[in-house]
Design a protein that fits this description.
InterPro entries: P-loop_NTPase, Thymidylate_kin-like_dom, Thymidylate_kin_CS, Thymidylate_kinase. The protein is of the alpha/beta class. The protein has 10 helices and 5 strands. The termini are far apart. The structure holds adenosine-5'-triphosphate (ATP) and magnesium ion.
C-alpha cells in the first residue's frame, strides 16, 4: 500500500513539473514572438538610452518602472537599470558608504560611482545594439551634481571620469522644489538626504542642463504620476524613433 502511495505521489510531482516546464516554454515562445513582432514592425534598429534624473524623491523610480511597462506593452523592448547598481562589488562599496557603514574620501567615492557605470557599459551597449531601450534611474549627471555640491570640487574635475560613457538619447529631468520633495516621504538616514545639500545639488544640475549637446527635457514633477507618465512616454517614443538609425554617442566628447 505504501509503495502504491509513493508511486502516486511521484506521478503527481512528475505531472506538476511537466506542467511547469510546458508553461515556461509557452512564456518563452510568447516573449520571443513579441520581440520578433516588434522587430518586424519597427525595423529593429538600436534601442534608445533614456535617463531619468532629478533631486531625491522627485519620482524617478516610479516613472522609470511605469515607462518600461508602457514601452513593453506597446511592443518596444525595454529594460530598466539604476545607478548606483548596488549588486556589483563596486556597488556594494558604494552602498556601505551611502548607508554610513563606511567612510571614504570624497574623491574615492566619486571615482567608485563612475567605475560602477563603466563596469556596466559592455552590457548596456550589447542591449542597445540588440534593440532594447534602456530606461536608466540616475546616471553620470547625478554623480557630477552630488560630488560638485561638496566644497572644493569643480564641475570639470567631476565630469572627467564619465567622459565617453554611452551618451543618453534623452535626459528627462524631473524638476521639483527640494521643499516639496522633502514632503513626499521623509528623507532617510542615508548620506546626502538633507534639504540644504539637495538645494546645492539642484544648482549643479541646472548648470549641467545648459549643455546643448544633450537632449534635456525638463518635466514639472509636481504634476500627478499619470500626467507625468504621459509626458515622459511621449518624449521617450520620439527619442526611440530618432535613435533607431544613429550610432551610440559618447558623453561629453
Ligand atoms: N507625481 C507624484 N506626486 C506625488 N507623489 C509622488 C509622485 N511621484 C512619486 N511620488 C511618491 O514620492 C515618493 C518618492 O518617489 P520615488 O521613489 O519614485 O522618487 P525617487 O526620485 O526615485 O526618489 P529617490 O531619489 O529617493 O530614489 C514615493 O512615495 C512616491 O509614491
Ligand atoms: Mg529612486
Amino acid at each position: 500500500m505504501s509503495t502504491w502511495l509513493k508511486k502516486c505521489a511521484g506521478l503527481k510531482l512528475f505531472t506538476s513539473r511537466c506542467s511547469y516546464f510546458a508553461q515556461h516554454i509557452k512564456q518563452q515562445a510568447v516573449h520571443q514572438a513579441g520581440i520578433l513582432l516588434s522587430c518586424s514592425k519597427m525595423s529593429c534598429g538600436r534601442g534608445a538610452l533614456i535617463v531619468l534624473e532629478g533631486v531625491d524623491k522627485a519620482g524617478k523610480t516610479t516613472q522609470c518602472k511605469k515607462l518600461v511597462q508602457a514601452l513593453i506593452a506597446s511592443g518596444r523592448p525595454a529594460e530598466m537599470m539604476r545607478f548606483p547598481d548596488r549588486t556589483t562589488k563596486i556597488g556594494q562599496l558604494i552602498s556601505a558608504y551611502l548607508e554610513k557603514k563606511s567612510n571614504l574620501e570624497d574623491q574615492t567615492v566619486h571615482l567608485l560611482f563612475s567605475a560602477n557605470r563603466w563596469e556596466l557599459v559592455p552590457e548596456m551597449r550589447e542591449k542597445l545594439e540588440r534593440g532594447i531601450s534602456l530606461v536608466v534611474d540616475r546616471y553620470a549627471f547625478s554623480g557630477v551634481a552630488f560630488t560638485s555640491a561638496k566644497p572644493g570640487f569643480s564641475l570639470e574635475w567631476c565630469m572627467n571620469p564619465d567622459v565617453g560613457l554611452p551618451k543618453p538619447d534623452l535626459v528627462l529631468f524631473l524638476q521639483l522644489h527640494p521643499t516639496a520633495a522633502s514632503q513626499r516621504g521623509q528623507f532617510g538616514a542615508e548620506r546626502y538626504e538633507t534639504s540644504d545639500f539637495q538645494r546645492v545639488v539642484m544648482q549643479r544640475f541646472e548648470h549641467l542642463m545648459k549643455d546643448p549637446s544633450l537632449n534635456w527635457q525638463v518635466i514639472d514633477a509636481a504634476k500627478s504620476i499619470e500626467e507625468l507618465h504621459a509626458e515622459i512616454k511621449t518624449h521617450s517614443e520620439t527619442a526611440i524613433a530618432m535613435a533607431e538609425n544613429q550610432p551610440i554617442g559618447e558623453l561629453w566628447k
